[in-house]
Specification:
The chain contains five helices and three strands. It has 149 residues and is of the alpha/beta class. Helices cover 32% and strands 9% of the residues.
Length: 149
């Protein structure tokens, strides 16, 4: 098992590179993304690739100290690439399900009051519902992390 409470034996990504969450063990803010990308795998740290750098700049512009944010992903293993585009795949449903209890407990363990879901995949894992990003942009979802992934 790669992470506590993960069901790695049930996960189709079990043989892929693993990137654990990173940040303070107690915090007010957790940022959750979809899955680690190539740069995250190289550095073994979430949110350090192009999208992560954009997020960190945005947080800094809002006065948020990134050293006080816990960063993680819905799945901790790299999902691979799409053949034609060479872009990261969306994690398969079985991978998200295998990692959901781990994600829930990881977030709860930080004591965070705020969850920033970065993207539709993360938003669905947080709320338990499909979230249209265009409709939810700049809104606060006042709901605890879903227990039904």
């Amino acid at each position: 098992m790669k992470a506590p409470f993960a069901r790695c034996r049930e996960c189709p990504l079990v043989d892929q590179p693993f990137v654990p969450g990173n940040g303070p063990t107690e915090t007010d803010l957790v940022a959750i993304g979809q899955a680690p990308g190539d740069e995250e795998v190289k550095q073994n740290k979430p949110f350090v690739g192009p999208a992560g750098r954009d997020l960190r700049r945005a947080l800094a512009s809002l006065g948020v100290d990134e050293s006080k944010v816990y960063f993680t992903n819905t799945v901790l293993c790299h999902p691979g690439k799409r053949e034609k585009t060479n872009r990261d795949k969306t994690p398969p449903a079985k991978a998200k399900a295998a990692c959901h209890e781990r994600l829930k407990r990881e977030v709860e363990g930080t004591g965070a009051r705020w969850i920033l879901s970065v993207g539709a995949v993360a938003a669905k894992e947080v709320t338990g519902k499909r979230v249209a990003l265009s409709a939810s942009r700049c809104s606060v979802l006042r709901r605890p992390l879903s227990s039904n992934g």
